[in-house]
Amino acid sequence: QGNFLFAQFPLFWFNMPAILKGWMDRVLVQGFAYDVSKVYDGGLLQGKLSLFSFTTGGTKEKYANRGDIRYLLWPMQHGIMHFCGVKVLEPHICYAPACVSEEKRKEMLAAWTQRLKTLWKEEPIDCSPDWYFK
User: Fold this and answer.
1) Which CATH class is domain 4-131?
2) Which family is annotated (predicted)?
3) What is the pLDDT along the chain (134 residues), one digit of tens a residue?
4) Which of 51, 81, 95, 117 could form a disulfide with 86, with the two C-beta atoms 3.0–4.6 Å apart?
5) What would the DSSP string read from start to end of 36-60?
6) What is the pTM of this model?
7) Which residues pair with 93 in a beta bridge?
8) Is 10 helix (H, G, I), strand (E, B) or coil?
């Protein structure tokens, strides 16, 4: 349909992998994704949705020790997607799949499968500083 930008990636050094960032740098360019006077809610990609689905190397508790993982999402979701006018859905995070039991990995996959069935019904996040830093 062309209305959805979906990114699945491993969180790498608290960010998306360089190859994905490079793709965004080359594709989400001025004149296509944004214009100097048309950014955020006025960005050129209005009407599109985005979802970041990623895995981490560390557990949820390890990330929580350093603050909310949402802090890491600010530059990716707000600074790239929202800047271009894209509405952002709540990210899908699988914490430390390499460090959990096979049963837990199956639960992660089942939860992701279930979410995909109803994804189009989800409301985008607020994308304000309050959502990221509350």
Assistant:
1) alpha beta
2) Belongs to the NAD(P)H dehydrogenase (quinone) family.
3) 458 999 999 999 999 999 999 999 999 999 999 999 999 999 999 999 999 999 999 999 998 887 789 999 999 999 999 999 999 999 999 999 999 999 999 999 999 999 999 998 999 999 999 999 98
4) 81
5) TTB-GGGSTTTT-EEEEEEE-SS-H
6) 0.91
7) 54
8) strand
